[in-house]
Design brief:
The protein is an alpha+beta fold. It contains 27 helices and 30 strands.
Length: 854
C-alpha cells in the first residue's frame, strides 16, 4: 500500500493530466451531442466513409468471422492485410473484439477518447522524465492538456489513425533520452516497433523528427568524445532498424501493394515554390482560428502560454547555447517545411497528400510545447522585459491581422485571444510560477483556453456528424435482407444493393459486393470496372452502372433494391435473384489473347466483345437503338454528321438544355450510355437527377431495368457551366434470350468448387484431352497462387484485372489460394529480428549482472 501511495504521489501530475484531458474531452462530446450524450456520432469525412467501414470488417476478423489476409467485402476482393497495415494496425482497435457489431460507433468514440486522454499522459510523463526533479511543476498538467487537445488533434479527430503517433511521440523522445544519457536501447526498440506498427505513415514522420532530436542531443553533449558519439549513433540506428525489422511482416507486403496498385512510390517532386505567405502561419497559433480541414494552413495551435514562454527558453542562460541553436534550427526547418513544397513533399513520405495538408504539423506543436515548458519552469532568472516584449509582439500581430483581414479574425476571436494574452502575461509578469497558487492559476487558464478552442472548432463539424439513428436505420434496413442471401458454407457469389451510404458499405455490412474506396485500392480493378460501365475512378468504385451481363460476369447473384428489376426473379420483398450469374470460375471458348483491351472507352462495346470471347462467337449481343434530341433550349447546331452533332450555347448567361424522349418498345433490358458527362453536365432521367456536375467524375451506364414495355423515358441534359455539348447519348438493348442461352452454357460447363470462405478455392476439373482456359471473377493480385494437381501454374491478369488460368489437358484439381506478396519474406525478417532482439536483451541483462572487477 505504501508503494502504491508513493507511486501515485510521484506521478500525480501525470495521472491528473490524463484525468483532466479525459474530463474536458467528455465535456466536449456532451456539448456537441455525441452518443450517449446526444444523437450524433463522430462519423464524418474519412471516419464516415472509410475508417468505420474498415473497422467493421476488422472487428469481424478479430471476432473470428473473417480473414486478416484477404477480403471479398472490398471491391472484387482486396489484400486486407494491406488495408490493416495502412488504416487499422493500432492496438487500440483490438478493443473492438469485445464490442458487439451494432455498437461499432460507440467503440470508435471510446477509442478516440482514450487516444486523446493518453496523449496528455505520455506528454506529462515525458516532461517529468526529461527534466530534473527540481523543475517538476503543476504546469506540466497545463502543457500536457494543451498537447492532447492541440489544434491538430481536434481538427483531425475523424482521422483517429493518426492519433497513435501523437501518443507515442513523447515516449519516443523519452527513449532517445535514455540512449543519449545511459545507452539504454530496449525502450527505443519497443517504442519504435509500436510506432511503426500503429501507423507506418505517421511513423515515418515521427521517425524523421525524432532522428533530428537525437542528432541535436548528440551535438549538445558536453562530452564530445568521438567514440562515445559513434556508439550512441550505432545504438540509435540499430534500434530503429531492429524495430522496422520486427514490423517487416506488415511493412513489406504493404509496400508491394502501394507500389503495384496505386503507384505511390516514385511520384514526381513538386517545384520549388512557396505554399502560402509566412505571415499567415503565426495566426494559426491563436485559439479559435478555424479554416477547415481541407487545403487549410498547418494546424499548429498549442496554447497562448506556449508562445509566450518560448522566449524564456531561448533567453535562459541555464540552457546550453548548442542546445538552443539546435532547437532554433529545428523550429526554422519545420516552418519552412510547411511553406516550401519540396520539404512538405519530403515530410509526407514523398507523396502528394489529398484533402488533408500538413499531416506532420503535430510535430511542430509538440516541440513548441516541449520548449515552452522548459522555458517557464526555468524562468526565475529571466528579465521581466522578455515577458513584456513577447506579449507586445503577439498583441501587435493580432491587431495587424484584425485590421488587414477582419473576415479571417472576427471580433469575438480577436478579443478572446487578446484576453488570454493579457491575463497570462500579467500573471507571468507579476507572479512567481514556482509558487503553487500562480502555477495552478495558469493551469486553470490553459484548461479554459484549450477547451474553448476545441469547442469552437468542433462546433463547425456538428452539421457533418452522422446521426446514430441514421446509421442504425441503415444497418437494420439492409442487414437482415443481405444476411438472408449470403453464400452458404462452401459457396461463393456476390451480393449488391441499390441503397448506397458509402463506397464501403460491403465492409460495413459484411457482404461480397463490388463497392470500395481506399488508398490501397487495386487500380487495375477499378479501371476494369469503370471500363465496363460502373461508376468508378482510381481509388473508388460503387455499384452504379450495372447491366445484366456485367452482373453475371462478376457473379452478382442477389440484389437488394426498392425499385423493381424486371428481368430478375423476385425471391422475396426487395430482393432479386439473377438467374444468369456466372460461378466464380468458368471456361472460355477462346484463349486469353482473344479478350479485348480496355480501349476505346466504350463499355457496351467492351461487354459485347467479352461475351464473344467467352462464347467463341462474333455476335452483336447489344443492339443500338436510334435516339435523337427531341428539343433544344438555348442551343444551336455547330456541326452535324452521321455519328454525332455538336451544339453551342447561344446565350452564355442563360440555362441551356437538350431533351430526349423514348418509349420502351418491348420486353428487352435497355441501357443508357452518355459518354461525355464527366464533371460537365447535370442530367435527369424522368425527373430524377442521375448526374451532377459537382459530384460525378466519370460517365457510367444507366440501367433501365425498372421500366417496362410502353413506359416513356425522358432524358434532360443541362449544360451547367459548359458552353457546348456533343450529342453522344446512346441507347442499347440486350438480346435476353440469346444471353440466357449463353449463360446456361457457361454455368453448366463450369467446374464444381468449394470455397473455404476466406482465401482458398478448390475446383474439381473434369479431365479433357485439350488445354482449356479458365476465367475467374476473382481480381488479379500477385498474391493469388494456383496449383493444378499439386504443381504450381501461373495466373494471368485477363483484361488487366480478372484471374485467368490455363488448364492443361488431363488436369483433375485446381487450388487457388491467397497469400500476400512479400508476406513470407516479411515474416522471415520479423522472426530473425525478434530472435536478435531477444538475444540482445539476454546478453544485455547478463552483462548488467556481471560483477565489476577491482
Amino acid at each position: 500500500m505504501m508503494k502504491l501511495k508513493g507511486f501515485l504521489k510521484e506521478y500525480r501530475y501525470v495521472g491528473l493530466s490524463f484525468l483532466l484531458s479525459l474530463a474536458i474531452f467528455i465535456g466536449l462530446l456532451a456539448r456537441i451531442g455525441i452518443f450517449p450524450f446526444g444523437p450524433r456520432t463522430l462519423f464524418m469525412s474519412d471516419m464516415n466513409s472509410i475508417y468505420a467501414d474498415f473497422l467493421a470488417e476488422y472487428q469481424r476478423a478479430l471476432q473470428g468471422n473473417g480473414s486478416f489476409l484477404y477480403s471479398f467485402h472490398a471491391g472484387l476482393g482486396l489484400n486486407f492485410l494491406a488495408i490493416i497495415a495502412f488504416y487499422l494496425p493500432s492496438p487500440f482497435n483490438w478493443l473492438l473484439a469485445a464490442i458487439p457489431e451494432k455498437n461499432l460507433a460507440d467503440g470508435i468514440t471510446l477509442i478516440t477518447t482514450l487516444k486523446i486522454s493518453l496523449s496528455a499522459l505520455t506528454f506529462s510523463f515525458f516532461l517529468k522524465k526529461h527534466l530534473p526533479k527540481e523543475d517538476e511543476s503543476p504546469l506540466s498538467v497545463a502543457f500536457a492538456v494543451l498537447y492532447s487537445l492541440m489544434g491538430y488533434s481536434v481538427t483531425y479527430l475523424f482521422n483517429m489513425i493518426w492519433l497513435d503517433g501523437v501518443i507515442l511521440l513523447p515516449l519516443i523522445f523519452y527513449a532517445i533520452d535514455l540512449i543519449v544519457r545511459d545507452n539504454r536501447w530496449i525502450p527505443a526498440v519497443l517504442l519504435y516497433a509500436l510506432l511503426f506498427l500503429s501507423n507506418f505513415y505517421i511513423g515515418y514522420m515521427v521517425g524523421i523528427f525524432s532522428a533530428l532530436y537525437f542528432l541535436a542531443n548528440l551535438f549538445s553533449l558536453q562530452q564530445s568524445d568521438r567514440k562515445v558519439i559513434e556508439k550512441k549513433f550505432l545504438i540509435f540506428t540499430g534500434s530503429v532498424l531492429l524495430a522496422a525489422g520486427l514490423n517487416a511482416v506488415l511493412l513489406i507486403p504493404t509496400g508491394f501493394v502501394l507500389k503495384e496498385n496505386m503507384g505511390l512510390f516514385g511520384q514526381a517532386a513538386p517545384g520549388f515554390e512557396s505554399k502560402f505567405p509566412l505571415f499567415d502561419l503565426f495566426l494559426k497559433s491563436f485559439p479559435g482560428i478555424f479554416d477547415g480541414y481541407k487545403d487549410s494552413l498547418p494546424q499548429i495551435y498549442c496554447g497562448i502560454l506556449t508562445i509566450l514562454c518560448l522566449p524564456y527558453y531561448f533567453f535562459n542562460r541555464s540552457v546550453q547555447k548548442r542546445e538552443k541553436l539546435c532547437s532554433f534550427l529545428i523550429i526554422i526547418l519545420m516552418i519552412f517545411s510547411f511553406n516550401l513544397s519540396p520539404l512538405d513533399f519530403f515530410w509526407h513520405a514523398f507523396d502528394h497528400p489529398s484533402w488533408f495538408p500538413y499531416r506532420y504539423a503535430f510535430l511542430f506543436s509538440f516541440y513548441l510545447l516541449f520548449l515552452g515548458y522548459q522555458g517557464i519552469v526555468r524562468s526565475e532568472n529571466i528579465e521581466k522585459k522578455i515577458i513584456f516584449l513577447s506579449a507586445f509582439g503577439m498583441i501587435f500581430y493580432l491587431i495587424l491581422v484584425q485590421k488587414m483581414s477582419p473576415t479571417i479574425l472576427d471580433d469575438q476571436t480577436f478579443y478572446i485571444g487578446l484576453m488570454f494574452i493579457l491575463i497570462d502575461s500579467f500573471i507571468l509578469f507579476s507572479g512567481n510560477v514556482k509558487k503553487p497558487f500562480v502555477a495552478w492559476l495558469l493551469v486553470g487558464l490553459c484548461l479554459v483556453e484549450t477547451a474553448w478552442n476545441a469547442d469552437s472548432s468542433l462546433q463547425q463539424y456538428v452539421p457533418q456528424y452522422a446521426l446514430r439513428t441514421e446509421l442504425v436505420d441503415f444497418r437494420e434496413r439492409n442487414l437482415s435482407k443481405i444476411r438472408s442471401v449470403l453464400p452458404s458454407e462452401g459457396e461463393f457469389y456476390r451480393v449488391e444493393k441499390a441503397d448506397i451510404r458509402t463506397y464501403n458499405d460491403a465492409m460495413l455490412l459484411g457482404y461480397p459486393g463490388i463497392g470500395n474506396f481506399s488508398s490501397v485500392a487495386n487500380i487495375s480493378q477499378s479501371t476494369f470496372l469503370k471500363k465496363i460501365g460502373f461508376d468508378c475512378y482510381a481509388t473508388w468504385c460503387t455499384y452504379q452502372g450495372r447491366t445484366i451481363f456485367s452482373d453475371s460476369l462478376l457473379g452478382i447473384r442477389f440484389i437488394v433494391s426498392d425499385d423493381p428489376l424486371n428481368f430478375y426473379s423476385n425471391s422475396s420483398e426487395g430482393i432479386y435473384e439473377n438467374p444468369y450469374a456466372f460461378p466464380p470460375a468458368f471456361y472460355s471458348q477462346s484463349d486469353f489473347s482473344a479478350f479485348p483491351t480496355l480501349e476505346p472507352d466504350d463499355p457496351i462495346w467492351l461487354q459485347n466483345e467479352i461475351l464473344n470471347a467467352l462464347m467463341g462467337s462474333d455476335k452483336t449481343w447489344f443492339e443500338e437503338v436510334d435516339l435523337r434530341p427531341a428539343s433544344l433550349e438555348n442551343l444551336r447546331a455547330l456541326t452535324t454528321d452521321e455519328n454525332r452533332s455538336v451544339f453551342e450555347r447561344i446565350n452564355l448567361s442563360q440555362p441551356a438544355t437538350i431533351r430526349y424522349l423514348f418509349t420502351i418498345p418491348d420486353e428487352q433490358p435497355y441501357t443508357l450510355f452518355i459518354p461525355n458527362v464527366s464533371l460537365n453536365y447535370d442530367i435527369w432521367l424522368n425527373g430524377e437527377q442521375i448526374f451532377d456536375n459537382n459530384k460525378n467524375y466519370t460517365p457510367f451506364l444507366i440501367d433501365l431495368d425498372k421500366y417496362q414495355a410502353g413506359d416513356k423515358i425522358e432524358i434532360l441534359i443541362d449544360l451547367a457551366k459548359s458552353t457546348d455539348y456533343s450529342d453522344e447519348v446512346r441507347l442499347f438493348s440486350l438480346d435476353l434470350a440469346e444471353f440466357a442461352n449463353a449463360a446456361k452454357i457457361i454455368q453448366t460447363n463450369a467446374p464444381q468448387y468449394v470455397f473455404d470462405g476466406k482465401t482458398v478455392f478448390r475446383f474439381a476439373i473434369n479431365p479433357s484431352e485439350q488445354d482449356r482456359y479458365l476465367l475467374t471473377s476473382v481480381s488479379y493480385d500477385p498474391g493469388w497462387q494456383a496449383t493444378i494437381d499439386g504443381k504450381k501454374v501461373p495466373t494471368v491478369p485477363v483484361m488487366g484485372s480478372l484471374i485467368g488460368i490455363k488448364i492443361p489437358a488431363g488436369s483433375k484439381e485446381l487450388i487457388l489460394s491467397f497469400r500476400p506478396k512479400g508476406l513470407k519474406v516479411g515474416a522471415g525478417i520479423s522472426l530473425v529480428s525478434l530472435i536478435l532482439f531477444l538475444m540482445e536483451v539476454f546478453l544485455y541483462g547478463k552483462k548488467k549482472q556481471e560483477p565489476v572487477s577491482d
